[in-house]
Amino acid sequence: MLSYTEENYLKAIYHLSGSGTKAVLTSEIAETMNTRAASVTDMIKKLSAKNMISYEKYYGVKITRQGKAEALMVVRKHRLWETFLVQKLHFSWDEVHDVAEQLEHIQSALLIEKLDEFLEFPTVDPHGHPIPDKTGKFVEVRQIPLSDCSGKKKITIRAVRNGSPSFLQYLSKIGVYIGATVAILEKIEFDGSLEIMIDGKKKVFISREASQNLLVTE
Amino acid sequence: MLSYTEENYLKAIYHLSGSGTKAVLTSEIAETMNTRAASVTDMIKKLSAKNMISYEKYYGVKITRQGKAEALMVVRKHRLWETFLVQKLHFSWDEVHDVAEQLEHIQSALLIEKLDEFLEFPTVDPHGHPIPDKTGKFVEVRQIPLSDCSGKKKITIRAVRNGSPSFLQYLSKIGVYIGATVAILEKIEFDGSLEIMIDGKKKVFISREASQNLLVTE
DNA sequence: ATAAAAGTTTAGGGTTATCTAAAAAATTTT
DNA sequence: AAAATTTTTTAGATAACCCTAAACTTTTAT
Fold first, then answer.
1. Where does the record place the HTH dtxR-type domain (chains A, B) (predicted)?
2. Considering Cα of B44, then B49, then B53, then B55, what sign does the dihedral take?
């Protein structure tokens, strides 16, 4: 049984490790958790004692199989709650993160299974991120940043990489949403910005930063 | 801003004080919170410093206007969540309490207003308890225990007084629910038990304890 | 290769919420 | 009214989580 704080650290480690594929440094964790390295070291010892991560001094941490399973359940809860907030309570996609950060820690297996059923077993959340099922599995669609796309193929917006409220609000404003079809009309050499056509209807320019934050399939 | 624990203490004080009408003793709080009197004294000092209760040593506490408002918001959240769990996620009424105890502490005014709207502004929860509106007001229907009813008038089940899971399961089993119509067929002198007719269809005997725990209108 | 810089851990504290044991006050009993 | 009992408060600890400052290790630069 993990505490609220332990769950948050574990989730951060899971994300920072690229879903558990690489080791994570103390400083990276301190950065994302907005704490000091000393606090991270304390928590690392706790999570290590609970076999959630393996830890070697000065070398960073690796998430264990068990830790990954726990982290995936927190991610599952977070994404199911975000889906609920948008689909049922009509939150906009830029309003859901902070509330889901709280809701993800509610302890009740029954609740999350019933919520999943109520939402009809969604596979992606409002930001296009995959929702692990109750065994921790999820579909991995190979997505690339829009900035890496070439030519004028039919492109579908699949997810945002960094879902900050201001970026999401900006996307809404220009008419970009998950599932939208876009075509690249022109790439501006000078600054890497793109002129794109959204749903064959609307032309807009987006910055390189924005195009790097949009994950798409061709 | 109150902590999770402060909210729980305040809610307990609100209930123990009869919605803020009478003073509450340290020992009563310790009893319902499953803590020691010493811990209660500590918390009383904190809540008093935050002007949620007024406190005089050795005399128990009284909830303030501000404290009552805070407690009502926690009660509102608890009851809205219970309603959600039963109506939307199809929990049974004996399964909701513990989950709602967690959900009631989620901090988001937007969430609770949207939830209220999603549920179409319910006025009572699954146990028949009134749900305060966003200003803290709620309809008070004069209810009496079934045990205090006389004669064979048409009686409507309105609420349970003590909603313990085992009592609720028992009610489901014998066919008693909020809104059911009952008639008293006979009062057994020996033990105060009642023979009742439910919805004009089913006769059952219920103990005095059970009849004292059912709140009704005549 | 060694000195400087960067990153990490340890040491020592602070806060919140809990506890036990002892002291103090109020209540009940004789 | 005094003694006994009960209730409440105070005193002193503990655990979780976080901090700063100092010590230690690793990495980078000269």
1. 1-64
2. positive
Residues of chain B short of pLDDT 70, as ranges, are: none
Query: With a 7 Å cutoff on the CB, does A38 touch strand C?
Result: yes
Residue A36 sits in a domain of what CATH number? 1.10.10.10
Q: Name the residue in chain B with its Cα closest to that of A85.
A: B111
Give the DSSP letter of residue A146: G
User: What's the token pair of residue A35?
Assistant: 């704490």
pLDDT value for B1: 87
- Provide the sign of the torsion angle of the four alpha carbons A6, A9, A15, A18, taken in this order: negative
CA gyration radius, chain A: 19
Cα dist from B162 to B77, B168, B184, B191, whole Å:
19, 9, 21, 21
Check whether residue B149 and residue B211 sit in a common domain. Answer: yes
Nearest to B64 by CA among B34, B20, B128: B20
Contact B114 A103 (CB under 8 A): no
Amino acid making up residue B47: L
Closest approach of B141 to chain A, Cα-based (Å)? 30
Phi–psi pair at B177, nearest 5 degrees: -145, 165
A218 pLDDT higher than 90: no
Q: What is the DSSP string of A160-212?
A: ESS--HHHHHHHHHHT--TT-EEEEEEE-TTT--EEEEETTTEEEEE-HHHHH
Q: Is B175 left (phi over 0), alpha (psi -120 to 50) or beta?
A: left
What is the percent of chain A where pLDDT is above 70? 100
Q: How many domains does chain A have?
A: 3
Q: Is the CB of A34 under 7 A from strand D?
A: yes
> Residue A119 is part of which domain span?
76-140
Q: Which of B99, B107, B111 sits opposite A111 (nearest CB)?
A: B99
Going by C-alpha positions, the residue among B145, B138, B132, B134 that lies closest to residue B192 is B145
B165 at interface of A, judged by CB pairs closer than 8 A:
no
Protein B43 CA to nucleic acid C15 C1', in Å?
A: 14
The helix/strand/coil state of B156 is strand
Alpha-carbon radius of gyration of chain B: 19
Question: Is B91 at the interface with chain A, CB within 8 A?
Answer: yes
- Tell me the pLDDT tens digit for each residue of A135-193: 999 998 999 999 999 877 889 999 999 889 999 999 999 999 999 999 999 999 899 99
For residue A57, pLDDT beyond 80? yes
Q: pLDDT tens, A189-205?
A: 899 999 999 999 999 99
Residue A146, pLDDT score:
96
Is there a single domain that holds both residue B155 and residue B200?
yes
